[in-house]
Amino acid sequence: MQKLIIVTITILCLVGAGSLTMADDAMKADIKAEKEAMRADVKAEQDAMKGKAKEHQGKMKAKEQELRSKSKAQGDAMKAKEKEMKGKAKAQGDAMKAQGQEMKAAGQSMGQEMKATGQEMKATGQEAVGAVTGK
Q1: Exposed, middle or buried by CB within 10 Å (0-12, 13-18, 19+), for 32?
Q2: Best label site of 32, 87, 100, 133, fewest CB within 10 Å?
Q3: Which alpha helices (DSSP H) does the chain contain, by range?
Q4: CA torsion through residues 39, 43, 48, 53, sign
Q5: Model-level pTM?
Q6: pLDDT tens digits, residue range 50-99?
């Protein structure tokens, strides 16, 4: 009977130590699986964040391009308006210059006419004086 008890205790010890080793291996495998799952979750979350960041960058680039286009269109419109106004101002300046030259020519013509009239009046006056004085 003692042999039976010793054999039973020996078997229990061997099975107990083996089961502890198996339990330890199983626990290590579970921890490893959990770590792998967590890594996969973190990687998926990082990929999602990268996707959102790229999408945001794309939207910002599109908005920047739109603003550049609007700004360029406004600049072109301003340049065209400025060119138009310069053209109008030049045309007005040319018209005023031509009108000034016409007025100058008219003034010169009038001056010459007045000078001629003055000379005629002077000659007539001298004739009148000559007739009165008897010369």
Answers
A1: exposed
A2: 133
A3: 2-133
A4: positive
A5: 0.43
A6: 999 999 999 999 999 999 999 999 999 999 999 999 999 999 999 999 99
